[in-house]
Write a structure and sequence with these properties.
single chain; 198 residues; mainly beta; 2 domains; 5-stranded mixed β-sheet; 3-stranded antiparallel β-sheet; elongated
């Protein structure tokens, strides 16, 4: 016969009925130390070059470049990477890996455009496999698992995964810790706070 109330106390027997813990049917009371979750919104911006009019006919749009990628949390802290010449796939993936991930969740609205521009430098056959998880199933340890896509192919630095509308990135050389680049590339990374002083 099981006791219907939850086990009470911290000792070997219940402080309410003096029976062992395993004799109780009721839910056990547990305390969870849960860290608050930080929510990030992600967005990027592109720009199309304007070509000058020729022969009075009117110019055609020039090349479209993805020039800015940013993330912001609910407290207003902003993370931004910009390159007026156009962001490369490596710059975008390094930016994502540099964001704080402990107790964080990332969201984006209409991320299809952003993902198209972010992954622009990846070969078509790799993208084909990335967006088709059924082609990436492998058997490991007797179980079917979903294998990520490793990029670049010759010396992989990233493991990319796309499944059910979720995109994930894992750095293979360790997670980047800082948003400030070690060398001075032709793009800028900025961390800032809008409207709040810390």
């Amino acid at each position: 016969m099981r006791i219907e109330h939850a086990y009470q106390g911290n000792g070997p027997t219940c402080s309410r009925c003096a029976c062992a813990r395993k004799a109780h049917r009721g839910a056990r009371e547990r305390e969870y130390k849960r860290q608050p979750t930080t929510f990030f919104g992600l967005d990027g911006e592109g720009q199309t070059d304007r070509l000058a009019q020729t022969n009075g006919v009117g110019g055609y749009p020039g090349k479209h470049r993805y020039i800015m990628l940013c993330a912001s949390d609910e407290s207003g802290r902003e993370y931004v990477v910009r390159n007026p010449k156009g962001l490369k796939t490596r710059q975008c993936l390094d930016f994502f890996l540099s964001l704080p991930t402990r107790n964080s969740k990332f969201f984006a609205y209409s991320f299809g455009y952003d993902l198209t521009k972010i992954l622009e430098d990846i070969d078509d056959h790799i993208l084909y496999r990335l967006i088709r998880p059924e082609l990436r199933r492998v058997v490991r340890g007797g179980r079917k698992v979903l294998a990520p896509i490793y990029w670049p192919a010759k010396a992989p630095k990233y493991a990319l995964n796309w499944m059910n509308g979720r995109f994930s990135i894992k750095g293979l050389e360790g997670r980047l810790q800082s948003l400030t680049p070690r060398r001075r590339p032709n793009y800028q990374v900025q961390v800032g706070s809008r409207g709040r002083h810390q």
